[in-house]
Design brief:
Number of helices: 5
Helix content: 25-40%
Oligomer: single chain
CATH superfamily: Naphthalene 1,2-dioxygenase Alpha Subunit, Chain A, domain 1
Largest sheet: 8 strands, antiparallel
CATH architecture: Alpha-Beta Complex
Shape: globular
Radius of gyration: 19 Å
CATH topology: Naphthalene 1,2-dioxygenase Alpha Subunit, Chain A, domain 1
Strand content: 25-35%
Number of strands: 8
Amino acid sequence: MPGGSRAIPCNAAIADPEDIIDIPNFDSPEWGINRGAAMELNCNYLLMCDNLLDPTHVAWVHETSFASAETKDAPLRVTKTDTGVIVHRWMMDHEPAPFYKKVVEFEGNCDRLQHYEVRYPSHALIRAVFTPAGTGGVDGTLHENTFVMDNYNFMTPTSETETRYYWFQLRNIRPDDEELSKMMSEDVRNAFEEDRAVLDQVQIGMNEKTSPHIDLGIDAGQLRFRRQLEAMIAEESMVDAKMSR
């Protein structure tokens, strides 16, 4: 696998229910849900993890949906946690991106949070927050009409170069609006198809590469995630080897 990772056989004896991801608001009647069928990606699962730790990619891959001018160059903050890596940023006082402009329940410009969090080994929470301009930011007091969408992503490797990708979103508006759920699910699926097209080509490039990788400053989150995951896999391999003796 990219970065030196390799598949480790599952050991049901050491599975811990406490490791199951917590999903706040999943059963809340005040939150709606958008979802679609699992997607089959022709790429290694770590490439999708890379994608979900890169808020900047929306500026180039999702120009007609999630992108706005600010997504091209607003600075990123990287935070390493015990469970994974978070890459996040607030973008202040700008027009909502096309996808979100259709659903936010306020007029005018917004303050926007992009919270991209991937947890070991391969699931992610992408939180989008849109609040009226002047009410967001690290120290802001969010407006009562703030829009929040929590996007949950689960990557299951099926081979060295294939991944089954499960996803759904929870939103804090109009929970019983089936037309809204359908529209948002379709739009999100279309955006994910854009990701798939890029990632499939990246995998081809990885398979046929003729020069070394070049790491950029904006890759800090992905690199931290991969290095820690490699260390965890190596440690688990040592434990498995000792148990098999």
